[in-house]
Design brief:
The chain has 166 residues and is α+β, with helices and mostly antiparallel strands. Helices cover 27% and strands 36% of the residues. The chain is built from one helix and eight strands; from the N terminus they run H-E-E-E-E-E-E-E-E. The model has no long low-confidence stretch (mean pLDDT 89).
Length: 166
């Protein structure tokens, strides 16, 4: 009798511990399943996202580029897009610059939207078959006649790059 009470307490502790561990495991697997579904949805969007860079012109200190949406997803998170420019200045110094988006007035080392061609559906969003005309202000500017690279990454992680002449 003197050992049955401690045995019952130990059994109760083991049962409660097993229930807590089972519940924690269930929640962990449920959270992992939700993350897996979100990752799958994002991967599907990435597969359906296709962009190309059209015409790129450079007139110091600006670079104008056309970003064409050739996929089937809409792009709207311009502040979450990465624009990288690898260029050579007029003095011959190499520069690798990340250029952030601005929805206000264009300032040195920022980019903005000049226009969205065929923007009839959802104004301000880059829908399939539309073209975004962007302007980038490089400071210091790219040198005349230099070969440079422009890389654009969408908010979904799809990247495209091209070479242009300064």
């Amino acid at each position: 009798m003197e050992t049955s009470i401690p045995a019952a307490v130990i059994a109760a502790i083991l049962i409660v511990s097993a229930m807590v561990l089972a519940r924690t495991g269930y929640h962990s697997f449920d959270n992992m399943g939700q993350v897996w579904k979100e990752m799958e949805a994002r991967s599907t969007e990435q597969v359906h996202t296709r962009v190309t860079i059209g015409n790129v012109t450079s007139s110091s200190p600006h670079v104008d580029a056309d970003l064409q949406n050739d996929g089937s997803t809409t792009l709207a998170g311009y502040d979450r897009m990465d624009v990288l420019v690898e260029y050579t200045t007029g003095g011959g110094a190499p520069v690798l610059a990340w250029i952030p988006y601005t929805n206000g007035a264009l300032a040195p080392n920022t980019w903005t939207i000049q226009n969205i061609i065929n923007d009839a559906f959802e104004p301000g969003f880059l829908n399939p078959s539309e073209t975004l005309e962007m302007r980038i202000w490089l400071d210091p500017p790219a040198g005349v006649g230099t070969t440079n690279r422009l890389l654009i990454a969408t908010e979904l992680g799809v990247t495209v790059s091209t070479v242009f002449t300064g």
